[in-house]
Amino acid sequence: MDKLLEVKNLKLYYHTSKGAVRALDDVSFDLYKGETLGLVGESGCGKTTTGVALLKMPSPPGRIEPGSQIILDGRDIMPLPEKEIRKNVRWEEVAMVFQGAMNCLTPVYTIGKQMLETLQEHRDMDKAQAEELIKEYLGLVGLPPEVMGRYPHELSGGMKQRIVIATALFLKPKLVILDEPTTALDVIVQAQIINLLKKLKKTFDLSFIFITHDLSLEAEVSDRICVMYAGKIAELGTNQQIYGEQGPMHPYTEKLLQATPLLHKKVDSLSYIPGTPPDLIDPPKGCRFHPRCHKAMDKCSQEEPPLLEVEPGHMVACWRCGK
Amino acid sequence: MSDKSNDVLLEVKDLKKHFAPHQSLAQTLSGKNRRVVKAVDGVSFSIHRGEIFGLIGESGSGKTTTGKLVMKLIDPTSGSIVFNGEDVTVTDKERTQAYRRQVQMIFQDPYASMNPRFKIKDVMDEPLVIHKIEGDHVEHEKMIIKALTEVKLNPPEEFMGRYPHMLSGGQRQRIATARTLILNPMMLVADEPVSMIDLSTRAEILHMMKDVQRDLGLTYLYITHDLSTARYFTDRIAVMYLGRIVEMGRAEDLIDNPLHPYTKALIEAVPEPRTGKVDVIKELPISGEIPSPANIPSGCRFHTRCPYAKPECSSEAEPELMDVGNGHFHACRRYKEI
What we know:
The complex is a heterodimer of chains A (323) and B (338). Chain A has nine helices and 13 strands. Chain A has helices at residues 47-54, 82-89, 111-122, 127-140, 157-169, 187-204, 215-221, 239-243, 251-258, and strands spanning 3-16, 19-32, 36-40, 62-64, 69-72, 75-76, 94-97, 175-179, 207-212, 224-229, 232-238, 308-311, 314-316. In chain A, the strands form two sheets. Chain A has an eight-stranded mixed β-sheet, sandwiched between helices. Chain A starts with a strand and ends in a 7-residue tail after the last strand. Chain B has a single domain, classed as 3-Layer(aba) Sandwich (Rossmann fold). In chain B, helix 5 (120-130) packs parallel to helix 8 (169-181), helix 6 (137-150) packs across helix 8 (169-181) and helix 8 (169-181) packs parallel to helix 9.
């Protein structure tokens, strides 16, 4: 399979008065064409920051550090000037549906006007053409064309989310980053949106990066799963390697899965991870997870474990899992 | 059944809360009545002493409004609430205050429910001041330490001097729980207490709440949209749809053997951490979204989305909860056919 995206040694630090917050520290992964890659982890682990970094728009005081590489379709976009990124990369090649985007629709404009504005900003087309295209996209996300005349408050959460997704697809991007696209939605609506995303992916030949904290949901959408902890990748494997019978290898993933309540299995007690994620200005020495790890040994607090391939396609950063 | 009924701590009967929308003078004069929003529309259930009762539903199902009614934060349109053998539906100010000492609430957002300028000591002291609990500073401090110990914040003295922003979400929710325990309540109403807490610590908070419940013999009303935590945490579950309970039973009966088509659909839609589902488009037995509570469908209120609906479902009277034995109730006349 061809690679659509290669991320190499990506570092994004927030330079605050107290010091640099190492929100992303040496993150490397690939994304193949037509694939859904899941980013999963606790809040503050760097999932959203990864998405924002791929658009090359970190929010100040964040900065992508020198040495980071983001290779999109064979071209490193890191050295490109902002003008070029705006013209040919952001939204054109890589689009992102932000968390809570559906609540950011302007309340005073109709849906049609908002979508029209977005489209005309980027494409040279007259109103009639643009409206035709909007209707087509509304149809693709399962909404009637009448929605164009409605205001956001007249629509349900599920409908607004469909509009945000349609808008992200306007410019025919190759990669769509979805940040918690169903978190605020009810479970039935969530399932409807997931089904829609799977269909759109086929129709438009898209690749997804799917960000969520919900391991159960990730199991249903992502071909490969990247588990992040404190700005680093803890484990990266196929859906089978993470959720299959053999189970994940990193103690963090293992504990996260054990902490997930299952609908069809009554358990007397769920396990949990004691403590909280570390301060990223001054992360713990050695493995960043070792203070909370049930399998930690002496070496873990001294040396940082590298992300190593332990079986084909399965990378783990843990001293316990080395060969 | 008779000895069981003695055990009932809270009984809610045919509870309704209808909100009338604001009308302009012109609208009132023109005689056009705007539709009433029926947030809770005839809910009945009872909670036994020492039980954890779960109220499940989508947004707009009326679960939070029911919780507010039980807390007496709002007054019901009709129906009754009997707590510990006493009708508390309509009470004077003094009695309401006393009731709130016995029934305490844990809110969803542990970040918004504490004054950021208060130290934990003051956060914990607030209910004692509001309820004019006797005792001087020393005695109050003892109570605070005891409550903090109950939720396993050790050592309690260390937490008392901190501010809320210095604590993690999990620790805050422990403080929120300790703050309710300080008044020695009989029952806690918890509205989505873990939905804003990270997955890794969510189980820890549920554990703590269960331990506290066991140690102190408390009764919980647990309100959530999350069936998976409800399965783990509760003894009995009631599923709400558009202001009414459509199914109620023991947690495992209800989830392993759902009878109402709505419950079935909810269970179907819950994702599970298992492999092999990436290429599958999930078949959802119901389509669309929950209708507006200002415009409730006739007959069975679920018929507009029900895959098994027949013409009778919309024309017949609304089905009441029916018992199929073992304390399992449902409100679907056609449950045998589906």
